[in-house]
Amino acid sequence: MIRSIQQETKVAISSMEEGLKGTERGAQEAAQLETSLNSILGQVNLVSEQISQIATAAEEQTSTTREISHNVLTLSELAHQNSQGINESTLAADNVSRQAEELQRLVGQFKL
User: Fold this and answer.
1) Residue 20: pLDDT band with limits 50, 70, 90
2) Model confidence at 12, in pLDDT bands (50, 70, 90)?
3) Where are the alpha helices (DSSP H) in the chain?
4) Cα torsion at 56, 58, 62, 65 (round to 10°)?
5) Eight-class DSSP state of 110
6) pTM, 2 dp
7) How far is Cα 63 from Cα 59, in angstroms, rounded to an integer?
8) SS3 73
9) Each residue's pLDDT tens digit, 76-106
10) For residues 7 and 13, what is the distance between their CA atoms, to the nearest angstrom?
11) From the CA atom positions of the chain, what is the Rg in Å?
12) What is the reported pLDDT for 112?
């Protein structure tokens, strides 16, 4: 009977030792998992930060594009106004030229 108890005690101790080893392996795996999850979280935070920087850059580019578009439109309007001014100047020069010719004709009619 004592041998039986000793045998059962050895089996129980062996089982407890295996359970302890399993628990230790589980704890090590949990620690490794924590390290892996922390690494993943760090990478997610890095990607999130990069996405934020990209979004900010895109907003700045959009603003710059709007400004450039506005400036091009302003230049186009100024070019149109300049073209109208040139046309008006050409008409005025033609008118002055005709008036000068008419004046020469009228002066030519006077006899001294």
Assistant:
1) confident
2) confident
3) 2-109
4) 120
5) -
6) 0.56
7) 6
8) helix
9) 999 999 999 999 999 999 999 999 999 998 8
10) 10
11) 48
12) 64
Tokens of 25: 């392996």
> Per the structure block, which two tokens stand in for 34?
């924590």
* Residues 21-62 pLDDT 10s: 889 999 999 999 999 999 999 999 999 999 999 999 999 999
Chain position carrying tokens 């106004």? 81
Cα 76 to Cα 79: distance, rounded to the nearest angstrom: 5
The total number of residues shown for the chain amounts to: 112
Which structure tokens are listed for 23?
């628990």
Token digits for 16?
A: 């407890």
- Distance between CA atoms of residues 2 and 7, nearest Å: 8
Tokens matching residue 27: 């704890």
